[in-house]
Amino acid sequence: MFVERSLSHLSDRLERARQELRIADEQLLFQLDVVEDTRTRMLVAETPIADGEYRVAQRDYDLLLRERDRVKAQIADLQAEQDRLLDRLLG
Question: Domain 2-90 belongs to what architecture?
Answer without folding.
Answer: Up-down Bundle (1.20)
